[in-house]
Amino acid sequence: MLESLITSKTRLRLLVKFFVNSKTHSHLRGLADEFGESTNAIRKELNNLTQAGILERHTDKNKIEYQANVQHPFFKNIQDIIRKYLGLDKLLEQILERMGEVHQVVLVGDIAKGIDSGKIDVLVSGESLNSDYINHLTTRVEDLIDRKVVFTLLGERITSPGLVLFDKEAGV
């Protein structure tokens, strides 16, 4: 659905890259390699997004790095739209609904790096998690968001790096 609003595939991929996880940063050549596109097409979109204030540019040694401008007035709105586009809102809703006493939900792997590979790796920590529900949930969520989802259930707190979608203690 978002593809009909944002007709440039490159722009959409850049928005996913930088707005799924606002800590993500990258440079032109890295993006060209990752997307398999020419540097000219990516440079054009990076310039447009930077001029609009949606992305920020920083010089790191001899490379220009880009990342989301978290101070932009529409930052949170864009991030919410991108996360809804990926189905992360529905994923979280389904996990919290009947998984038990969930403490944390953390995305790891490609999606945490802003890469929409079609697979979402999810770590769920908590007490008395409903492991029987996980098989049903996997199929249900995959149908709902049209992406492969891999769940890992943990009893202890998650310390690995990733994108925290929910943390009961931190109020996220």
UniProtKB/TrEMBL annotation:
Annotated HTH deoR-type domain residues: 20-58
Keywords: Transcription, Transcription regulation
Organism: Algoriphagus pacificus
InterPro entries on file: DeoR_HTH (IPR001034), WH-like_DNA-bd_sf (IPR036388), WH_DNA-bd_sf (IPR036390)
One Pfam family here: HTH_DeoR
Name recorded for this polypeptide: DeoR family transcriptional regulator
Coiled-coil features, chain-numbered ranges: none
